[in-house]
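At this stage, I wrote out one protein's amino acid sequence and its backbone structure tokens, and that material follows here:
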Amino acid sequence: MSLCTPPRAGFDLRLHYPQGVDERKSGDTPTLDRQIVALALPALGALVAEPLFVLVDSAVVGHLGTAQLAGLSLASTLLVTLVGLCVFLAYATTAAVARRLGAGREREALQSGIDGLWLALGLGVVLALVLLLAAPWATDAMGGAGAVGQHAVTYLRWSALGLPGMLLVLASTGVLRGLQDTRTPLWVAAGGATFNGVLNVVLVYGLGLGIAGSGIGTAVAQTAMGLVLVVVVVRGARRRGASLRPATGGIWANARAGAPLFVRTLSLRLAILLTVFVAAGLGEVALAGYQVVASVWGLAAFALDALAIAAQALVGFGLGAGDVPRVRGVLRRTLQWGVAAGAVIGVVMAAGGWWFALLFTSDPQVRTAVALGMAVCGALMPMAGWVFVLDGVLIGAGDGRFLAWAGMVTLVVYAPVALAVRHWAPDGAPGLAWLWLAFAGVFMAARALTTGLRARGTTWMTTGAAP
């Protein structure tokens, strides 16, 4: 079945074998390009749909008052960080399912996916309970006091009820990506974002629930998304005779595979937090400029992440099938796509930096800082494209332990450079330029070096159903 085949009515799962696998195992470039695009474009749509939850909540809650919006800002930062650290549920499941599918073990692929769902559900329940109890402490630790802190606690506690659903979304999406299907998560994400918007308006204003209504709406929408995706996966599992019961061994295997990816993600989060810390030390102008540039960087990351997701699915499938030449072809072609996409995005960022700044601020000093920061990021964006794709390739290969080690090494390399910028760089626009040179240059170069050297070898190319 071609990757271009749309999802069946009712999101009924079908296995999406990469086009040409049976006829030409190594695949030609046009065929491979079609596979990359067919996986990456829907993945990009799903990635863009997810931030709409916070955007819609902000738009609705913002009209309630400044204290409510500030409380939402604190609470959503905590939630986004928490869910972001759990992205290993999607990554580890993608690699495991794709390998087994490539090896022709469809039942085992779905069984691994079911085990991943149980892990996500259990972890989601635990995190929800912790957040319900620790919400006041967490908001206080972030500086939420008075009315702002109260609103943050209210939103946190209601939206925490949606954590099991959100983690099920991550795990289910990983299963479907492993099955070479990125379209179903796109439709569910788009539907969930729309449903969330309607619920927010009805609950916040129609029923007068205030910020609590926003938290309830988000939790309900996330739970609904999780249930829809679980139904899709469960239908496929039943059709292929996979057990739906929780298996301790399978759940533990998923946890072991995900733990190194958690460490990798943690290292990235720490690097970002360190960057914000340095920006804050360079003055208000630098911090304001950093926020704008970081927002644009985040949008660019969606496009590069989509290519990384395509690489994950195709590499996992190829290694499962034992087709090393095909995997080398995927590596080469996705890297070309990544660098090219980074170059295009970089030109837009560098050339449009001043115009982007006009959209966000009227302060001439901040505009200058944004323009300088965007120019630095734009020049280095092709390297970021290289890094994102290599990450996806190694995640798809199940090389999590190396990525965990490499993540900590790059953090150790970056930390003194970032702190040096805070200590010696001038405040304002010049300091922000130096900071982005440290992050987009030194940090990304360290990641490019570690993952690039790994990809040049063959250690990560373990073939078969399990890495």
